[in-house]
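Convert to structure. Protein one:
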Amino acid sequence: MSAEILGIHGIGQERKSQESLRESWKNAAQEGISASHENAKLRSMDVAFYAPLFRKATGRLGGAGEIFDGIPLSAGERIFLEEILEDGLIIDTGTGDVQTQVLGLTAIPSHISRFLVTVDRKFGRNAGKYLLYILRQVYRYLTDEDLASAIRQKVTESISTSTRLILGHSLGSVVLYDMILRGDLSRGNGSGYQGTSIVTFGSPLTWPTVRRMLGHGLDIQDVGCEWHNLFDPLDAVTGGAELIGPRTINVSVKNGLGDPHAAVNYLRHPAIGNLLRCTT
């Protein structure tokens, strides 16, 4: 399918099909466009679908809190989470000793448990568990080159000469940023990406540890085009923080208390709708 707008989804889509995910993104994007301009219509949109790669990697289906259920943290994941804690986006406010059973998670060090409870207190119930789940999948992308390469290939295969705008949600924003700096989008599948901007939302690139482990330098690099980044201050995955980098335009949005990280909630926002309307 050749589309003008290409989305790169985030984590937790293992139970969905590409068709259902595409339709949910398209419907939400149309709401965003209608909110910014009543009579405008979304012309063509596709989603690069890599979720089955995570299913194969784990050997299990699952959603947040399920796919890693019963799988203890590896030594590498512990170090990764400790460094995330030290990033300081979310300060441990001294919640005291916490039993891991409180979070319903596999055994994790008490200082990481305290951090996750702090996340709950700042962003809402179960936010810490959700953040842990997402960060573990981000860690997989950062450390499993076979998996990461396969994900990037899926995106490459979805780019066509028609593609004018690429959106990256959550882990998808990490993949998009990584591909740009690797030069994958300029090489692409022989067609190349000719867009003049990118859009990210709910991005974990706000965490210095994620950027460092990605291997393109600690600071956000110039991606060669205008970069629009949407974040909800109550979205724990972003740490409630904006992205600071060259040509980066941050927009703070309110997605409600139910699921501030959800892609469809970001896509419904008029700020994204206006960007999509300009593309279409």
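Protein two, convert as well:
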Amino acid sequence: MLNAEVKKEIKKNGFTLWQIAEQIGVSETSVIRWLRSERDCRNQQKVMNALNELKSKKGV
């Protein structure tokens, strides 16, 4: 999945990058930096895991 798609998925589900960052336990700046580059899939997976956790808490 491309980072642009990850960002779109976050927005589509009504979350912000700071909420994702808080769920992971990092700063919003870190998440922004991770999603700026397609190089590291591990960080993208952390973001997707956090999104899925938030979605399950929200009941989406």
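The chain has four helices and no strands. The radius of gyration is 10 Å.
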